[in-house]
Write a structure and sequence with these properties.
Length: about 100
Amino acid sequence: MRGSTWSSWPSGSWRISPKGDSEVPIWRTRGKYRKEMKGGYSKKLYNQRSKDETVFSVVKRLMGEHLSSRLVRTRNRELALRLAAYNAHRLINIT
């Protein structure tokens, strides 16, 4: 992605988004998160994203891409159990 950066959200998650107009100085930019986005991003964190996407792709192929639960709490549990099963699957196949 050309001209993109990482930004922290109040929830603690990270997001990648365009930098915006680079000709406008930071002090003239409005918004806390927009100012943070203009500051640059960590190459180490950006490279981590591709590893995470690979894991989720494998989990979807092995166990299906749809969750059967309706409530957010039970969806989170179902996803955690799928990831635990994926880790067990990898452990068995590696050893």
